[in-house]
TrEMBL record:
It comes from the Bacteria. It is found in: Membrane. It is a multi-pass membrane protein. PANTHER family: PHOSPHATE TRANSPORTER. It comes from Sporosarcina luteola. The keyword NAD does not apply. The lineage of its organism: Bacteria, Bacillati, Bacillota, Bacilli, Bacillales. This is Putative low-affinity inorganic phosphate transporter. The chain crosses the membrane at residues 6-24, 45-63, 83-103, 110-133, 139-162, 306-328.
Length: 332
């Protein structure tokens, strides 16, 4: 069998594996607040998230097109299949390491950093599409700050609305509303995160000259959505524990405020075809909500560890991908 075809098949397999791992790694963030407030039982939340992620992944393709052409031009990439395979192996390795330690790191940062690192290792810094790459980086950097502000504002609004209400009764009603916001959160996660694997597969198909445009084929969309849904059904309880309880003590009103603000930001990014880190956005929204309620109520030590992981993910994944590319290049 032709080497390029073998590499392309390898890319498809590992891209779907990345989506599967992303399902139980990142999707845990989307349901963490509803599980921690006991609005949903963990197993019920996981299955609901799996279904909503699948639907979200099938609905949009704009982010996939951004991933496929805005970091590196696949039409200009020599040994493109090797580059993409190295990037996937790096991103998967980093996701598994952070999942093992229960740290909610960013799959988006890991993947984008890995693509850049592998491409630079193959062809130098000139291979990057700097206009598109910087646009993606701006979205990744700014979205957590917008999420903190959004969480703070929504929670402040809820405090005004519920000022003269019986908090026990209000929290009881809001807990039921959290089922809807958790579903919305999972849907928006699918609209953004699942598309990253679609973009990677499309890059590989272009590099192998199996397609000549950046259109996302139907089988790619279905395969990526299925992998994300299956991964979600496995669940990511370590991440749920960190996001749902270790950043702050979450009550139903906090959970719904965090869900609404983060879902709006993620879906907004999807509509303008920009990838964002759902992990960053959701965790930052929770920090914003906690700050609005009581600054000292946020466990800033845990938040600091999460932020450090956010910062180091991109350079570490880029370095890992560069090394993996050089290793694969010995054989291909």
């Amino acid at each position: 069998m032709d080497t390029v075809l073998v590499l392309t098949i390898g890319v498809v397999v590992f891209a779907l594996a990345f989506d599967f791992i992303n399902g139980f790694h990142d999707t845990a963030n989307a349901i963490a607040t509803s599980v921690s407030t006991r609005a949903l039982k963990p197993r019920t939340a996981v299955y609901m998230a799996a279904a909503m992620n699948f639907l979200g992944a099938l609905t949009f393709t704009g982010v996939a097109k951004t991933i496929s052409k805005d970091i590196v031009d696949p039409f200009m990439l020599d040994k493109g299949s090797v580059v993409i395979l190295a990037a996937l192996l790096s991103a998967i390795a980093w996701n598994l390491i952070t999942w093992y330690y229960g740290i909610p790191s960013s799959s988006s940062h890991a993947l984008i950093g890995s693509i850049a690192g592998a491409a630079i290792s193959a062809a130098g810094f000139g291979i990057l599409n700097y206009g598109g790459f910087l646009k993606i980086m701006e979205a990744l950097i700014l979205s957590p700050f917008i999420a903190i502000a959004g969480g703070f504002l929504v929670m402040s609004l809820f405090k005004v609305i519920l000022k003269n209400r019986n908090l026990f009764k209000a929290n009881k009603r809001i807990r039921y509303m959290q089922i809807g916001t958790a579903a919305l959160q999972s849907f928006t996660h699918g609209t953004n995160d699942a598309q990253k694997a679609m973009g990677i597969i499309t890059m590989a198909l272009i590099a192998a000259e199996l397609q000549t445009s950046d259109d996302i084929q139907l089988w790619v969309r279905i395969a990526a959505a299925t992998a994300m849904g299956l991964g979600t059904s496995i669940g990511g309880y370590k991440i749920i524990k960190t996001v749902g309880g270790k950043i702050m003590k979450i009550r139903p009103v906090n959970g719904i405020a965090a869900d609404l603000s983060s879902a709006a930001i993620i879906f907004g990014a999807t509509l303008i075809h920009l990838p964002v880190s759902t992990t960053h956005v959701i965790s930052s929204s929770i920090m914003g909500v906690g700050s609005a309620q009581r600054v000292k109520g946020v466990k800033w030590g845990v938040a600091k560890k999460i932020v450090i992981t956010w910062v180091i993910t991109l350079p570490i994944s880029a370095t890992m991908a560069a090394i993996i590319y050089q290793f694969l290049n010995l054989f291909f």
